[in-house]
Amino acid sequence: MAQIVAKFGGTSVSDLQRMRDIATTVKSEVEAGNQIVVVVSAMAGITNDLVALAREANPLHDAREYDSIVASGEQVSSGLLSLCLQEAGVSARSWQGWQIPINTDGVHGKARILGIDTEKIIKRLSENQVCVIAGFQGLSPENRITTLGRGGSDTTAVALAAALKADRCDIYTDVDGVYTSDPRIVTSARKLEKITYEEMLEMASLGAKVLQTRSVELAMSHKVPLQVLSSFTGMMGSVLPGTLVVAEEEIVEQEIVSGVTYSRDEAKITLLQVPDRPGVAAAIFGPLSDANVNVDMIVQNISENNNATDLTFTVARGELDKALEVLESCKSELGFLASVPDSSVAKISVVGVGMRSHAGVAKRMFAALAEHNINILVISTSEIKISVLIAEEFTELALRALHSAYGLDKT
Amino acid sequence: MAQIVAKFGGTSVSDLQRMRDIATTVKSEVEAGNQIVVVVSAMAGITNDLVALAREANPLHDAREYDSIVASGEQVSSGLLSLCLQEAGVSARSWQGWQIPINTDGVHGKARILGIDTEKIIKRLSENQVCVIAGFQGLSPENRITTLGRGGSDTTAVALAAALKADRCDIYTDVDGVYTSDPRIVTSARKLEKITYEEMLEMASLGAKVLQTRSVELAMSHKVPLQVLSSFTGMMGSVLPGTLVVAEEEIVEQEIVSGVTYSRDEAKITLLQVPDRPGVAAAIFGPLSDANVNVDMIVQNISENNNATDLTFTVARGELDKALEVLESCKSELGFLASVPDSSVAKISVVGVGMRSHAGVAKRMFAALAEHNINILVISTSEIKISVLIAEEFTELALRALHSAYGLDKT
Prior knowledge:
- 2 copies of one chain form a homodimer.
- By secondary structure, chain A is of the alpha/beta class.
- Chain A has helices spanning 16-31, 46-57, 63-87, 119-126, 152-164, 197-205, 213-222, 280-290, 320-329, 331-334, 361-371, 395-405, and strands at 3-8, 35-40, 92-95, 102-104, 113-116, 130-134, 137-139, 145-147, 168-173, 194-196, 226-230, 243-246, 259-275, 295-303, 308-315, 338-351, 378-382, 385-391.
- Chain A is 34% helix and 27% strand.
């Protein structure tokens, strides 16, 4: 007998027919003798509709009311899926965040889970009942509904799996696993059988939108074995194997690079002739941070002639205007000559825990890009990834070149 | 300073514009120094949509899941109205049944309120915050969401007013008060300034769908002053006076008859030649009751020739087929000759607490109907009402004749 937490996202519960398919999948797991906890998102589109209503009611909407309104989507889908399971002859009961409870902090709109009381869930599972949990939501210390932020149902699932010490946490999505690169661009991309938490974390934060970053962090720190697989089941409810996200030591034959990712949500700002004195970086990035603009890659060039440097950094494309506004407002104070924006850039990254023990990974990247005449604008590295900023038009070319250069193409 | 519970039904919160109108109404009450508790229904149509989804998911739907799904409608409307109030500059907070809590029994789908913990509400009111309560729902002893049945938000409002000992409970609806008869049929019908609980109760259960019957019972037993008024406000949020529902002693000049009501939701069944022996009534009405068929008016005729009687009674029109099925299944046991159904009947009632002290009310009714050649099929009476069953085609004629006969026409 295994205890499995299975999470189904919005497109997996978009209508009652899809819910009946899930019921079939869950039923086969139950009949195989497993204890099943299901975590559901709201039906596709519902959350967006509710968010739009809340915004229309009050543009500066109160986060407490926003959370209460938006969480109703999961209340409906958890109830409906329970009814579909019952209709399929499976004992099932829905649970809202406040009923379990899933205790969170009071940061409405992006609350963090503090603890889960698993007593009721364990009791129901022992009675062979499927527990259908409304994802994305919890209960604040003030007894109000909180939500965990976009993609929060992944976090609900992983947190439940951790609290229950479940054997596995299956995340059913509209893709059938984690790929070495985006298969829509790199046709030779392969589905990975296994990937480490660290790699998944880098890939999630670098634009592979398979799992919410926080859910991967949580899985890593609690060593919850994650599986990403497709909710589009085949004949007889059979499920294709997906990708397992596991600890590094569980992967015997580690490849040097596991994936090549990209993000077009990038914009570059170059500040010309920034005075070269101590504290100038803080003076620039302080106001941006205060305005909630996240700065990602930073590079500083020395221009020796007049004690001034050029400073280049990247922000999310949607925050470019705000960033420029902030910079302009303190231009005289900072003393730079001009700000030069460029939103036609993309970030390409190679990710792999194998980098730690293998030299020459960066060299191979730069060589492959040079071979295709792709100019590198900014470079940043971490222990298990190398990212470069390039002109956006070369995105596809760079992805395919790197995928091939690291031997990731399927044979 | 007055403490007022104001309930707004589904058509009053059908969209954000209507909610903003409510916010204006509530704001003027708050600015007048009053403490306001608002009870809201789901946005018009939402409850029906959710019910349809639940039924499609599982025709024999589990009432616990049904309640959880359906109650989400009030969760959304209470949140949105709170946002509209905040947008209008009024401090407001939404409250779900489980947050207060409004404790109910465990009869899902038609739960009864057992008690309301008013502590949090009183605290917020004292801080000049408007409390926006999700109507129609409560919390079962098993910590699950219950619903109070159709129209249950009226009951939520009255129960809150009783628990808070509020000065008034205002029920905003799409009519502007209680009329002496249906103004769509009787153009001379007048809006009543005041009506007693007992009369309202009879009129509610007789088809004047202004208030849920249970909410009137509750108001009567706790002496909550009720006001029925229109949510369609005039210029500057001004509200037209509605109808006050109060105790009998608060009405100085009591009219003999307050209203003439009708119901077309009636069907008549006549059982021919029912054996005239003790226990036969129980033998007939027992199985009907077991099948949840409510029997309303009953009349028994003696047919002396063969120790058998004809028995006539009425049921709701939608339950006629079920009733006939039940009767047919025990026909041989009961020994009647045949069942004769008739669904082209209507019930007309005159209601008034003044009947208690005035003779001749029935006589005037029968005379007025006779004058218009309307045949009476069945008669039933209570202390403050007289009902007759007539052929449905005479409904409008009978209503107008009686309205005029009791001097109710507006002058």
